[in-house]
Amino acid sequence: MDYLTIGDFGRASGLTPKALRLYDDLGLLQPADVDPWTGYRRYLPDQLVQARLVARLRLVGMPLARIRDVVAATGPQQRAQLSSYWTQVEADHRARRDVVATLLHELDHEEIDMHHDQHLTATAAARHGLGARTHQLDAVHLGTRVFAVADGFGPAAGPSTAAVAALASLDTTSYDEAPGDALGETVARAAAAAAEASRDLDEEAGTTLTAVWLVDGTAQVAHVGDGRAHRLRDGMLEQLTRDHTLVQALLEEGRLTEDEARSHPHRSLLNRALNDRSEADLLTCDVRAGDRLVLTTDGVHGVLERADLERLLSSPDAPEAVASAVAGAVEATEAPDNYTVVVIDLAA
After folding, report:
1. Bridge partners, 127 (sequence order)
2. Residue 259 contacts residue 15 (beta carbons within 8 Å)
3. Which of 2, 172, 279, 304 is the most exposed place for a label (fewest CB within 10 A)?
4. CA-CA distance, 108 to 125, in Å (whole number)?
């Protein structure tokens, strides 16, 4: 009988050995054979169907107790149980939406007092590369006040290039409304430009977008997708944005473990990208002289451990050298994807 080791079975199913051991203990997915002397678990190829079902149910956030019921059921009952679960999820979301609408109305009336330093200047540098890809789909903009990265998907870089080009207008265009409103309107134009650029392509195409606009002594951040904006202050690296991926949402809800999220076959599956159906997150961040702002596409933070990225970005070197060091570290991982890093130093 041809068994698969737990490592081979995990790679084939998208589950980590740690997750497989957990699912064995819970009775969700038990190995076909356990060596009585070593305790090594082995699986049959036929068990991959059940393993992949468990992985996909975890991806949609189903609790382990309910997954056990689905796995134990037969075909029609499995479908009924999944349908029942999702009906409840949608009802829960409708209830949450009402609560959020009330909170937003209340927060609209709160005043935010933020100190504005009008005299910050920025020195920036960027590095990006192909990685193992044949085409560069990342796009980057380095302005005097606007800095942006976009990670495109599809056959060409048109959407990502169009998106950052639209953001560049904030470097030179005056605005009459509040900075957040001006940024939101510009992002909407960027979404329209990206959609227009993807219209004539043969395959589905689009882009993420993460941008920083330095204005009125603040960093106005626009973000949609799985790029990231970071702020390094006093040697501490803080992620300013949250990834818009299904796996990240489930991780934050406690429905996936760190190990499951890190190795999940759908960890890059976006639940938001730049388009007219999904608004970008708009954030106002305090900045001051001595801060370092950093933008990365997932080709950087997807392959570098957080501790390694923080160490590289904490270097006292100038942005050019720091960006080059990050690019070198990414290349050392064999860089499976396009990658882009932007390093911005702020001074009085």
Report:
1. 341
2. no
3. 2
4. 37
Phi, psi of 229 (to 5 degrees): -115, 135
Q: What amino acid is encoded at 279 in this protein? A: E
**Quick one: which H or E segment has residue 4?**
strand 4-5
Do the Cβ atoms of 312 and 99 come closer than 8 Å?
Answer: no
Which letter does DSSP use for residue 331 in this model? H
Residues 6+ apart with CB under 8 A from 286: 114, 115, 218, 219
Cα 27 to its chain centre, rounded Å, is 32
CB 343 within 8 A of CB 140: no
The pLDDT value given to residue 112: 45
Please give the share of the chain, as a percent, with pLDDT higher than 90: 52
Nearest residue to 233 via CA among 313, 121, 127, 142: 313
pLDDT bracket for residue 138 (50, 70, 90): very high
Local structure of 192: helix, strand or coil: helix
| Class of residue 300 by CB neighbours under 10 A (exposed 0-12, middle 13-18, buried 19+) | buried
92: amino acid identity, one letter: D
Other CB atoms closer than 10 Å to residue 2's CB: what's the count? Answer: 6
User: SS3 breakdown of the chain: % helix, strand, coil, rounded to 5?
Assistant: 40, 25, 35
Q: How many CB atoms lie within 10 A of CB 55?
A: 19
Q: Where are the alpha helices (DSSP H) in the chain?
A: 6-13, 17-25, 48-59, 64-72, 75-107, 158-167, 179-198, 246-252, 258-263, 298-301, 306-313, 319-332
> Dmax over Cα atoms in the chain, in whole Å?
75
Per the listing, tokens 């006292």 go with: 316
Give the separation between CA 14 and CA 255, rounded to whole angstroms.
16
State the SS3 of 8-64: HHHHHHCCCHHHHHHHHHCCCCCCCEECCCCCCEEECHHHHHHHHHHHHHHHCCCCH
Beta strands 138-142; 146-153: pairing state: antiparallel
Which pLDDT tens digit goes with each residue over 268-288? 788 888 976 667 899 999 999
